[in-house]
Amino acid sequence: MGDSKNGVKRILSSGRFWKRIDEEDKNMNGHIASNKDERAEFLSQSVVLFFGGG
């Protein structure tokens, strides 16, 4: 469990990860998502996909 959380922290603190999220936001809707709830939901789904919810 601890290793998984450290992995999440590493990914979230990576500038490249955030840049990729911004690019995906643009590609999805043609604009950067300004709604923080949208972004939080997107991030939580991404983390579940990456780590299988574990």
Describe how the helices and strands are arranged:
Elements: H1 2-13, H2 15-29, H3 36-51
What does this 3D model show about the protein?
The chain has about 55 residues and is mainly alpha-helical. The mean pLDDT is about 65. It is about 80% helix and about 0% strand. It has one domain. The chain is globular, with a radius of gyration of 12 Å.
Would you count the extended β strands for me?
0
Give the % helix.
Answer: over 70%
Count of helices? 3
Helix-strand makeup class:
mainly alpha
Strand content: under 5%
What characteristics describe this protein?
single chain; 54 residues; mainly alpha
Q: What's this model, at a glance?
A:
The chain is mainly alpha-helical. It has three helices and no strands. The longest helix is centred in the C-terminal third of the chain and has 16 residues.
